[in-house]
Amino acid sequence: MSGMDEFAQKLKSIADQSKLRESAVVFERSRSFIDSNWEKLLKQCPNCWVAVYKEQVLATDKDLQNLVRIIRKSGVRLEHVAVELLTSEKKPILL
Amino acid sequence: MKRNPSSSRLFSDSQKFEIRGFYRQGYPGGPWRPFVRVAVALPRFSVVRQVDMLVDSGADITTLQPQDSLLLLEEPQFSQLGEQHTVQGIGGLTTFFQEEAAIGLFLPNKRTCWVPIVIDIAEPSTPSGIPSTLGNDIMQFGVTSLDAVHRTVKIELWLPHSLVTKS
User: Fold this and answer.
1) Alpha helix ranges (H) inside chain B
2) Among all residues of chain A, which has the CA nearest to that of B167?
3) pTM tops 0.80
């Protein structure tokens, strides 16, 4: 078996175990909730990180690493969660 | 999958894959930015997740920012990542860790096309809120079309060694 075949098998195994394509549907719901409720969420917790699972706010925190610890403790599958920084700072980005 | 009509030697024996992206505002009333939704797999850690990546045609590399990497890796695993190095950006130097990865493009019929790359994972302790970015290490394989008027994004890649999985 070539290295490329082994790599492909490893990727398939990872994708299958995580149910990647099924997760896509849930992740889309979580992400869409943030996009649709951005201003409301921003008013509730300005300059916070927010974690959303489906249509539910799992947690908000000013510190991203704290937020991720809360998500992990919640038991929700991480692939389903969308995370975003709710910022009122209207700063353009230049990468 | 179609053959690229280009006569380029690079593309002569490649398969074409196409994904569509979208535009999203950075904040309400803010500028619209082009994104694609891809899967990022880190085989050494047996993890994968979806990531919305800002299409950054000026970047040499694809990056993973803390809001995404912290959901892929547990904090102690960051010390197991590959070589640490600094990358020059407009805002200055940033510390990244290099790691073998694959970028998954979602295709119809539950297929995923994987592009092996070395991804740069930002040091996680000081997240800036900047999105993860898709750079020229991916876009070099094809044509990226950004239509800001209709807010559509299309990336066509001609890959010489395609890795397609179905699940």
Assistant:
1) 66-72, 136-139
2) A16
3) yes
